[in-house]
Amino acid sequence: MSYMSGFGNEFATEALANTLPQGQNSPQKPAHGLYVEQITGSPFTAPRASNQRTWTYRIHPSVKHKPYEAYKHPTLLGTPFGDIDTSPNQMRWDPPAYPSKPVDFVDALTTVAGNGDSFAWTGLAVHVYAATASMDRRFFYCADGELLIVPQEGNLTLRTELGRIDLKPGEISVIPRGIKFSVLLPEGKARGYVCENYGQPLTLPDLGPIGANGLANPRDFLYPTADFEDESGPHEVIAKFGGKVWCGEYDHSPLCVVGWHGNYAPYKYDLNNFNTINTVSYDHPDPSIYTVLTSPSHPAGTANLDFVIFPPRWMVAEHSFRPPWFHRNIMCEFMGLIHGVYDGKEGEAGGTFAPGGYSIHNCMSGHGPDAAVVEKAMNVDLKPQRLESTMAFMFESRYIFRPTQQALKSKALQKDYYIAWQGIKKMFSR
Q1: In 13-28, which positions are buried (b, 16+ CB within 10 angstroms) versus exposed (e)?
Q2: How far apart are CA 33 and CA 25, in angstroms?
Q3: Which domains are assigned to the chain?
C-alpha cells in the first residue's frame, strides 16, 4: 500500500491510468465509464486556505441505494448528552473487556462521554471499541463529525472510499465527515478509542513563539492512494446522522472510487514522529506544548478539541516537581493510555491506570499526580531522566464531558478512584 505525504495538500491519485480528466473536473463523459462526484467538507465560500473538497471518479454514484432505516445500536449514542446529571467528581475506567462473540468495529463502538451539539457543529463525543470480527460487506460513515481513531491494541486495516490505510497502536487516523469505510482486524481483535469531532476539522496548531519547527511535521501525515473495489450484490452501509444510527442497503460496494483529486481525504500519523518540546530549565510545561492536532473554536486560543500526547521524552527540569502539578482547568480533559505507564499515575490506590483505560477530569475539578507519584517526585534525585515505553493522550475540550449513563453503570468504572489522592501527606509546618 502506498501513501502520499503532507498535511492538507492537494492530492491527485488514480488506480487506472487516464482516470483523472485534464483541465476540468466534470467532463461530459468521464474515462472508463465512471461517474463524477464531489465531496465537500467545508462551506462552498470558505477561504481558500480552509476550503476542503475532493473530486471522485467512481463506478457508482453515492446516491444509488435503497432508503436508510433506523438501526438498533444500543451503545453508539449522539447529542444531546443530558440523560443524567454530570458531577464534578474525577472519574476513571478500566479497559473495556473483549466480547465473547464476534463483534465488528461499528457494533463495538460504545459512547462513554460527549458534549456540545452535533446539529450546531460544536463539541464532540468519545467512544471506545473492543472488536473481535472484521466488517464483511459492511461499511460505516459519520455525517455528524470527523472520526479520530486511536488504536490501543491490535492492528486495523481501514478500507476507505479514497484508499486503504493500515493502522497500528502508536498511530492515529482521521476519517473526514461523510467518508465511508470498513475496518478489518488482521490479528482477530482490536481495542482503542474514537473521538467524534462535531466542530471545525482538525488541523495543525500554530507554532507561535516556538517558531518554524517542532511538534507534528506536515510531511509526516500520510494519505492513501486510490484503490477501488468493483463488487456487486448486497452491501450494508451504517450511517451516524443526526445523533442516531441508520442502515442502508446498496447493490454494490461503496468503495468504487477509481481516482480522486483534492484535499478532503483520510490520513494517518505516527505519534513516534512527534517532535516533543520540553523545558530545559525548570517547571513542568503546560500540556498544550504536546498538541498534535486542534479543532479551533472561539474566542481565539480556546479549542473545541485538542488532541494532546505524552510520548517518550527527557525530563531535565531543575529544582522542580517534574510530573504534572496539581491543577484545575477551565478546559476539560479525557485521558487515555495506549501503552506503558503514565508518569502522573503510577500508584495502585483507587485502581490502576492501565493501557486501554481512560479518565475524565472536568472543568475546575482538581486533579493531578496520585499519592505514590507525589512521594516519589518530591524526594527523587533530580538527574536527567528518560521516560521510555509510554504513550498517553488527551482529548481536551472547552466543553464539559458528560458521561453517558451506560459508562456510569459500567463494571469498568473505578468507584474508588478518589482514594488515589487520600494518601497525600500533610507536611505543613510553621
Answers
A1: bbeeeebbbeeeeeee
A2: 15
A3: 66-252+265-271 (2.60.120.10), 274-417 (2.60.120.10)
Burial letters for 30-62: b for 16+ Cβ neighbours within 10 Å, e otherwise?
Answer: bbeebbbbebebeeeeeeeeeebbbbbbbbbeb
pLDDT of residue 301: 81
Given the residues 60, 73, 127, 284, select the one marked as catalytic.
284
Q: What is the DSSP letter of 326?
A: P
Question: DSSP of 128-152, one letter per residue?
Answer: EEEE-S--SSEEEEESS-EEEEEEE
Per residue in 151-182, is it b (16+ CB within 10 Å) or e — as a string? Answer: bbbbebbbbbbbbbbbbebebbbbbbbbbbbb
- Measured CA to CA, the distance from residue 214 to residue 369 in angstroms comes to 27
CA distance 102 to 98: 10
Beta strand spans in 198-273 (E): 222-224, 232-241, 244-252, 257-262, 267-270
Residue 300 CB: number of other CB atoms within 10 A?
7
Name the 3-class secondary structure at 117: strand
- The predicted structure's pLDDT at residue 1: 66
What is the Rg, in whole angstroms, of the alpha carbon atoms belonging to the chain?
22
Burial 225-237 (b: 16+ CB within 10 A, else e): bbbbeeeeeebbb
pLDDT at 82: 84
Amino acid at residue number 231: E
Report how far residue 298's alpha carbon sits from residue 303's, in angstroms, rounded to the nearest whole number.
7
Which residues have C-beta within 8 Å of that of residue 32, sequence separation ≥ 6? 16, 18, 19, 57, 258
| 117-147 residue pLDDT tens | 999 999 999 999 999 999 999 999 999 999 9
pTM of the full structure: 0.97
- The bridge status of strand 303-310 relative to strand 391-397 is antiparallel
Q: Residue 168: CB partners within 8 Å, gap ≥ 6?
A: 151, 155, 156
Query: Side chain identity at 361, as an amino acid letter?
Result: H
What mean pLDDT value characterizes the chain?
96
Examine the residue annotation and report whether 298 is marked as an active-site residue of this protein. no
